[in-house]
Amino acid sequence: MSMHGPIATHRSATGVPSGRLAIWWLLASEIFIFGGLVTCFVLFKLNGTPGFEDASLTSTAAGAINTFVLLTSSLSIVLAHAAIEKGDRVKSFRYIWYTIGGGVVFLGIKTYEYTGKIIHGHVITENLFWSFYYTMTGLHALHVIGGMVIMALISFDIRKGHNYQRVELIGIYWHFVDLVWIFLFPLLYIANF
Amino acid sequence: MSQAAAAVQTDTHAEHHEELSFLYKYILPVDHKIIGMQYIFTGMIMAIIGGYFAYAFRMQLAFPGELVPLYGLVGPGEYNMLVTNHGTIMIFWVAMPVLIAGFGNYLIPLMIGCDDMVFPRLNRLSYQIFLVSALVLIASFFVRGGGFGGAWTSYPPLSSVAEYSLTDWGASLWILAVALEFVSFLLGGINFVTTSMNARAPGMKMLDIPIAVWFIVVAVILFMASVGPLVAGAVMLFMDQRIGTTFFLPSGGGDPLLWQHLFWFFGHPEVYVVLLPTLGIVAEIITVFSRKKLFGYRTVLYTAFATGGLSFVVWAHHQFIAGIDPRMANVFTVTTVLISIPLAEMMFSYIATLYGGSIELKTPMLWALSFIAAFLIGGVTGIYLGASAMDVYFHDSYFVLAHFHYTFFPITIIGMFAALTYWFPKMFGRMMNETLGKIHFWGTFIPFNCIFLPLFFLGLAGQHRRIYNYEHFPDLATQELQNIRIFATVSLVVMLIFQLVFIYNFFVSMFKGKKAPNNPWNANTLEWTIPSPPQHGNFKDLPTVYRGPYEYSVPGREKDYWPQNEPPEEN
To answer: What ipTM was estimated for this complex?
Structure first.
């Protein structure tokens, strides 16, 4: 396979690089997946489905810490992007790994939360609230894990000096993962409507 | 102009001549043409399975309880499985892969004048996921309990509780296969949209893009915007089945209607997702074979946008009798009838294109014209069903079934044959046999009407669908009605036999047909400016575009066509 790839990859009739365009379309389709779940959750909640009062049992403190961790990790991926724009591979590599570290802390706290809930009998089949809780946070966690794996691959890539643009692309994705959490946190941990 | 020069420079720079091994050329290709053909061939194989299923359950309806030749006895459970998977296969594994992924892959880079998709390896991945999804679906027929039998709409609680569906594993593999298929098309769709946005030939403005490409792109965007909630729904249904959650089960506080909303929020735009590519294909064919400019290019395009937009607010017309609020039913009746306006406008544009043209009835043109005729019947009967008052009677009757097949048969089967016969010379470098093509056309189109027209009458007579043996219903077991069923089934068998003509013609022409010139139909779009079949990398020198795709019979020109890449004459 040639290093350059097809000419199509390098064309840009819109002026936006294809990679960035594609990541935005990916996120657009992701919005509908999470949007579907969130809408279902809100409709059940507005209908007064029994079990949704269990929202008060989730640990707001743990959720808040996780929000802080995730937002901070978004800052570090922005710094990684800023560094690679200046061509500083070492610094960018380091910031990418800070971001991955943020993901690890986030998942650790998540694991702690899950364990606590399951010990107290709040399993996924207990009622609809917990079904939504585990489905939504679980799907979100899968996105976090996926992002971390891809970030690790990119970090080694840029250390060798390839594909600098990918730092920006994974950054856009990571912000989206962040944004989903910004919706999940109030819905599952705070809201009492 | 400088852009064009730059493109030509990069082209010569990146040109490479290395021969790819068989493995990388045909099994693990990144070439969009080969991937497109992989999709088309996989879709055609799945069409044979779907057609075989239709044959088996139609025989059971015509001759209940008798052994079906080449199949065996069709029991009630098996009947459900056949009906369900016929629908699933024909929509998700035939219409989508052939019309969108297959022709989309093949045509987009050729028609917009570049050498490949923007992300060739993503393209390959999306086909591989698609192939896995097809294998998972086929595997589901052979697990304990057999394939899923809860209809292609898969309504819970029937689909979510193994004790109800009796297909514990079949149901889960089915939902898994569908979800994988969605993932494959989301990846492919991102590629299609990005390619069409970014990789166009220099000079090709938005309104110079052939309608076929435009419509595939609009269809893909509709798909991306509608399938998300159903992906979420599929996850929820899968968890209901395997983990024991109760998202869709009233016994645990869930709501079965929620699934219907999620399903049809996708399911109705899906109709337009598969319709638009065929409409695009038909637009290409009718302009070429009537030697006329497409009537109202902009109008056609804007009606597609309007249809796409409206298609998001009509879904509940599938649920008029499912217990939704009657006031909501009124709203959805209005939107449903509204959506026929842009589509009718598009149909009139196509008919106006034909008006006064030098029409040449080659096989692709016959398919394109028959599409317009058949789809009109499908569209008009849809207006009956869209009115909630009438739908109360028609719901779940054979009237719905006949209406549905008058839309989807033209879309899927007629659209597929139109495209295959039209682009065959480009794909394989040889011409198909016209006489055999016409025999196949009439041998398909006449029986098609004989199958589905009578079903309208069965529906009006009150025949409910999804019943495997009408002998148990005295009102429906009369000889008259049974004769209609037998007539429809015999017509189906005739139609299936005529497909052998196509298969023969297809494979013999592929190897022994007359050599095809670059541009056998004297068409304008860019794929016809290069040798048939196109080489790896498509264009020797990447083209520059000077005009729209439908400049036929331009006054004052010697030739009656004007390829998009031909530089304007200097005066």
So the answer is: 0.93
